From TrEMBL, chain A:
Signal peptide range: none
CDD domains named among the record's database cross-references: REC_OmpR
A Pfam family per the record: Response_reg
Keywords: DNA-binding, Phosphoprotein, Transcription, Transcription regulation, Two-component regulatory system
Listed GO MF terms: DNA binding
Domain Response regulatory as annotated: residue spans: 4-120
Gene Ontology biological process terms in this record: phosphorelay signal transduction system
Membrane-spanning residues: none
Modified residues (4-aspartylphosphate): 53
Protein name: Response regulator receiver domain-containing protein
TrEMBL record, chain B:
Taxonomic path: Bacteria, Pseudomonadati, Pseudomonadota, Alphaproteobacteria, Rhodobacterales
Domain of life: Bacteria
GO cellular component annotations of the record: membrane
Name by which UniProt lists this protein: histidine kinase
Annotated transmembrane regions: 6-29, 41-64, 70-88, 116-135, 163-180, 192-216, 244-262, 282-305, 325-349, 382-401, 407-432, 439-460
Sorted UniProt keywords: Coiled coil, Kinase, Membrane, Phosphoprotein, Transferase, Transmembrane, Transmembrane helix, Two-component regulatory system
PANTHER family in alphabetical order: HISTIDINE KINASE 1, TWO-COMPONENT HISTIDINE KINASE
Coiled coil location: 628-669
Catalytic activity: ATP + protein L-histidine = ADP + protein N-phospho-L-histidine
Length: 122, 894
């Protein structure tokens, strides 16, 4: 099983925090911070897990998720969605779009780590 | 001091005096004082530019050569003033309601705003006026020479041509100075009009003084003078009836058609009612001007040596008797007549040349782009100034080339016949709805050719332009094409001959072609407006525009009218339509108003073309065509009302749709408000929680890492606090619970403070300010106002993408408000976002750490509390915000 994680998020401090937590756990973390060419980044990196923010500049996380699921190569890649909008309809939208798991900000570091481990190790 | 030097000195003093009069009148008008400037008597006196040097000197010469014939020159205008008063009133009414700038503009407007026609009329007017300007220069130099001859000290005669050149240059400078102050040819030239009125008084006074001197001084009384007249040739001249009637008609026609008369009578007219006074006062003036003509002529013929030029009797009689003072006064009279004519003619013609020839060519060369970029104002003013110089120079050139032998009266009549060619198209346009552009072109063209061939070219004398053979045998040897005996009409007076044929053929072609051709729809519409100017309410529609064009129209108008005037016009129009901001609906009414205002600056045809370029080719709609197809005015009216109704319905629908869209938007925003707050609060909290857990749970952090993560937590906590502050601030402002803290301070200090607080120093953004204008003391809540300035400057620093970024801050006072514009050179805000930038949580750019999208919402609330406003100013180079604040220190009652 691989250990490549692609983090798509635009807040620099959150990028730093998540990268720190995951790298210390042995994951190889790459980051990308805008919506326009997120799909391109996904194709280049071919990650084992994608962590995707909902509110991105250029394109929403839901749209990016649809594109990911539309590509046969990544149809089964686990996607962990992060959102700062904690309404239930956002959760429904994420599930419909095919998110593997959905977490609301702020999160506990331990929960993120547990979720990542659970998603990659079947 | 010799008399010649005295004359030059008096002349210079007189010119300085005229400059002072014009300057003072302009100043008085500018300050809104001087209601006497708008008196009907000033108007009447300004009409007296009809009496040029030709009438001042030439009338006596005319009388000495052909007896009472000179009276016709005064009789024609008198008959027009008294008998055709209602025609003049119609011309003035049309001129004012259509913002007509010249006779070329009037004719072109009437015949479907045809620029071809305008060019034609302009060329004809320039050719017709050139000999006349030459005539004025000639009269000044001749009278100057008359003085020189009597001066024993002057060993050599002054060079005539250099005198004429000096006079021409002086007149050009005067005309440019006072005739091109403002671009809008529709605004009155108060200075020029006042100077002309003064000159009118001077010339009348001078002629009367010479007359009194001749009758009671030289001749010895009324009875003796009558006896002299009886004895002189004047009483023996045969006056042929046909020539008498012909000349009276000719001067009447010229009075209506001369570009300079049109300028003072219609363009400079302040009030239609002034015509009422002029109807008796102007004939009285003419009567006084002609009172002493015959006595002077008779006494001159009797006393002066034979061979003396009778044109100069007015001057030479006092000189002969040693009355130098009177002679100088008489000279000033002639000088006044000449200069006033040249000044007004140059203004009138330059308006025509620049509006109908230079501007269209320039617009064509620079393409449609010129309408929205490039400075049309400067080009127009420059064109007008160059045209003035060009026209006066043409006159000088004609003077040089034609020599100075021809009698004054002859040149004047040639000009008169030339401009009389406008009459059929002009009168037909005002009174006959069937008149068409084709007819006008054909009539004008034919009349012009006949005038050129039969009168103008032969006037240079045989073998100068036309070879002798043409005079004797006709063009190409065809006998009935002889210029002085067209179609075999031999033995006629050349002027009468040319007048008869040109007017006959002109009118014939005009009527015939009008009947045979079918007018374009726009000609029909304009025709109805001109012919029925007294019945028509403001105009059936012509333009149909969409919303998106308003901003383009604003940009274009700013180039022509200047930013302030254009913005005021658009704001007024928007307010009339019940809208806020600077972009009114491009309703037909508004477009028509805009076209009229623009045509005051660049002429009707050009203004029409410019609006057409933006609004699109929809100048004539299907409704218009239907209206035109039906002849009766009632149905046209009815149809235009229907059109207006349907336009209004469409407009109401559009406004409802906009309101609905806005409501939906607000509802979506309200819905998203919680979600937004949630997002804005959770994002910094995420970082805080994540890093505090890292600090707590990770044992082996280096001291650098520890301090870095701690400061991230600190920064995010600060961001969170700021957000909460903003939210509270906004909530307090919105609920009106804010307490304003009034202080007094200088605007410039406040802006300095805002610049510092917005972090301009050390950044890329350059701020351009006008500190002189900012020295304004304010009494308001300065801290709150500074908050607004900081926000606007910081936004420019963050979002302006100009290379390099520049923010321009301009301050001025207008209508009781202090207006401060913040304009940057970036790419601005797209129109679809302009409506929502003042809403909460709407960001201009992409999501970026730092801005929560509350800044402009807070600014708007603050300005409302301070009794002012902040708004987005569309149509500028980049993003532009306008802050306005009442100057009076009224504060919103809290």
């Amino acid at each position: 099983m691989g250990n490549k994680v692609l983090l798509i998020e635009d807040e620099p401090n959150i990028i730093e925090a998540v990268s720190f937590i995951l790298s210390r756990d042995g994951w190889e973390v790459k980051t990308h911070s805008n919506g326009h060419d997120a799909m391109q980044a996904v194709r280049e990196r071919a990650p084992d897990l994608i962590i995707l923010d909902v509110m991105l500049p250029g394109k929403s996380g839901f749209d990016i998720l649809q594109e990911i699921r539309g590509d046969t190569e990544f149809a089964d890649t686990p996607v962990l969605m992060l959102t700062a909008r904690g309404q239930s309809k956002d959760r429904e939208m994420a599930e419909r779009a095919g998110a593997s798991q959905y977490m609301t900000k702020p999160f506990s570091n331990a929960d993120v780590l547990a979720a990542v481990r659970a998603l990659v190790t079947p | 001091m010799s008399i010649l030097n005295a004359l030059i000195l008096v002349c210079v003093l007189y010119v300085v005096f005229l400059f002072a009069v014009a300057f003072a009148a302009d100043r008085a008008a500018l300050r809104g004082r001087g209601s006497w400037l708008r008196s009907p008597y000033v108007y009447t006196l300004s009409l007296s530019i009809y009496c040029t040097a030709w009438t001042f000197y030439g009338a006596v010469g005319f009388a000495a050569r052909s007896g009472l014939e000179f009276v016709t020159i005064y009789l024609g205008p008198t008959l027009v003033m008294i008998g055709w008063w209602w025609t003049l009133r119609k011309m003035v009414r049309v001129g004012r309601s259509q913002r007509i700038t010249s006779i070329a503009d009037l004719i072109s407007s009437r015949y479907g705003k045809s620029n071809l026609l305008a060019v034609f009329v302009t060329v004809l007017a320039v050719i017709g006026a050139t000999p006349y300007i030459a005539l004025q220069l000639q009269s000044v130099t001749l009278s100057f020479a008359a003085f020189a001859e009597t001066d024993p000290e002057a060993t050599t005669l002054p060079d005539m041509q250099s005198t004429a050149l000096w006079v021409a240059m002086g007149l050009t400078v005067f005309t440019i100075l006072f005739g091109t102050r403002n671009l809008d040819a529709n605004e009155r030239h108060h200075g020029v009009v006042m100077a002309i009125a003064v000159e009118a008084v001077v010339k009348l006074f001078a002629l009367l003084a010479v007359g009194v001197f001749v009758v009671w001084g030289l001749s010895g009384g009324v009875a003796e003078t009558l006896a002299r007249i009886e004895a002189s040739e004047i009483s023996r001249f045969e006056v042929t009836g046909s020539r008498w009637v012909g000349l009276t008609m000719l001067s009447a026609m010229a009075f209506l058609c001369l570009p300079r008369m049109f300028q003072v009578m219609v363009v400079e007219n302040e009030d239609e009612d002034h015509l009422r006074t002029a109807a008796w006062a102007f004939p009285t003036y003419l009567m006084l001007m002609s009172l002493f003509v015959v006595p002077i002529a008779a006494v001159g013929l009797d006393l002066m040596p034979s061979g003396a030029n009778p044109d100069l009797f007015v001057l030479t009689l006092p000189l002969m008797d040693g009355r130098d003072g009177l002679a100088i006064l008489s000279f000033l009279g002639g000088f006044s007549s000449a200069t006033s004519m040249v000044i007004v003619a140059a203004i009138a013609l330059s308006t025509m040349v620049s509006n109908h020839m230079v501007m269209p060519i320039w617009l064509h060369l620079s393409g449609g782009a010129a309408v929205v970029s490039g400075d049309v104002r400067h080009v127009a003013l420059l064109a007008r100034r160059l045209s003035i110089a060009g026209i006066v120079f043409l006159g000088y050139l004609y003077f040089r080339l034609s020599g100075s032998g021809t009698a004054l009266a002859a040149i004047g009549l040639i000009s008169f016949v030339g401009v009389a060619q406008f009459l059929p198209s002009l009168m037909g346009g005002l009174f006959w709805r069937g008149a068409t552009r084709t007819g006008a072109l054909a009539g004008l063209g034919l009349g012009f050719v006949v005038w050129l061939y039969c009168l103008f070219l032969p006037s240079f004398g045989p073998s100068v332009v036309l070879p002798q053979a043409v005079f004797d045998n006709g063009l190409w040897g065809i006998g009935w094409l002889r210029p002085r005996a067209l179609f075999g009409a031999e033995g006629m007076d050349p002027v009468m001959h040319a007048l008869m044929w040109s007017m006959l053929l002109n009118t014939g072609a005009f009527v015939l072609c009008s009947l045979l051709s079918f007018p374009q729809p726009i000609e029909r519409l304009q025709g109805a407006q001109f012919v029925n100017v007294f019945e028509h309410s403001p105009t059936p529609g012509g333009w149909a525009g969409g919303m998106a064009q308003s901003e383009d129209l604003l940009i274009m108008s700013q180039r022509i009218l200047g930013a302030r005037e254009a913005q005021a016009l658009f704001e007024r129009a928007a307010r009339r339509q019940g809208l806020v901001g600077y972009l009114p609906e491009p309703s037909p009414d508004f477009l028509q108003e805009l076209e009229r205002v623009l045509s005051g600056s660049v002429g009707a045809a050009t203004a029409h073309a410019m609006i057409g370029q933006i609004v699109g080719g929809a100048a004539v709609s299907v409704e218009d065509l239907m209206a035109v197809a039906d002849e009766t005015a009632q149905i046209m009216e009815y149809s235009s009302q229907l059109e207006a109704k349907s336009q209004e319905l469409a407009r109401t629908a559009r406004q409802l749709r906009q309101a609905n869209e806005k409501l939906t938007q607000i509802s979506v925003q309200k819905d998203g408000f919680l979600s937004q707050i949630s997002h804005e609060l959770r994002t910094p909290m995420t970082s805080i929680r994540a890093f505090s857990e890292i600090l707590r749970d990770t044992g082996d952090l280096t001291p650098e890492e520890q301090s870095k993560y701690a400061s991230i937590i600190h920064d995010e906590a600060v961001r969170l606090t700021r957000l909460l502050d903003d939210l509270l601030d906004l909530s307090v402002l919105e609920n009106g619970q804010v307490v304003l803290n009034s202080q007094t301070g200088l605007l410039s200090d406040l802006l300095d403070r805002a610049e510092r607080a917005a972090g301009v120093q050390g950044g890329d953004l350059r701020v351009e300010r006008d500190r002189a204008a900012e020295a304004v003391a304010l009494t308001t809540d300065l801290d709150r106002l500074a908050q607004v300035f900081i926000n606007l400057i910081a936004n420019a620093r963050k979002y302006c993408d100009g290379r390099p970024p520049v923010l321009t801050i301009r301050t001025r006072q207008s209508g009781g408000y202090l207006v401060i514009d913040f304009t940057d050179n970036g790419s601005g805000i797209p129109p679809e976002k302009q409506a929502v930038i003042f809403e909460k949580f709407s960001r201009i750019g992409e999501t970026k750490a730092g801005g929560a999208g509350l800044g402009l919402a807070i600014c708007r609330e603050i300005m409302t509390r301070l009794g002012g406003s902040v708004s987005y100013l569309p149509g500028q180079a980049g993003a532009a915000f306008r802050v306005s604040l009442p100057v009076a220190n009224r504060m919103a009652a809290q």
